[in-house]
Design a protein that fits this description.
This protein has three helices and no strands. It has 104 residues and is mostly helical.
């Protein structure tokens, strides 16, 4: 197997080394000063009706609904689903590590 790889080593080395030598050449650089008056300007934007604000009720408080609570059956199902998902994810991770060790 090593004999099959050895002829490919020299062209691969050339392909990897030549761009590194070409990248070391520095080109000519110029510095252009930026004039702040021309580059930094503020332009007002017309206010569209995208954000409409309404006044609060007469007592000054906004009505906020209580968060929805799930029943005990729904909470149990959520916990069971999380546990199953964690076990499946762990099994996939361990399986991929074992497969990687066995195949490579």
């Amino acid at each position: 197997m090593l004999r099959a790889v050895r002829p490919l080593a020299v062209p691969l080395l050339i392909v990897l080394v030549l761009p590194a030598f070409a990248a070391n050449e520095t080109g000519e650089q110029t510095v252009t000063p930026i004039v702040p008056q021309r580059e930094q300007r503020i332009e007002p934007i017309a206010a569209p009706d995208e954000q409409h604000v309404q006044a609060l009720a007469g007592d000054g408080q906004q009505g906020v609904a209580a968060p929805a609570t799930h029943g005990p059956l729904r909470q149990t199902a959520d916990v069971a689903a999380k546990i199953v998902l964690s076990v499946v994810g762990g099994a996939i991770a361990v399986g991929s590590v074992i497969a990687g060790l066995l195949l490579f």
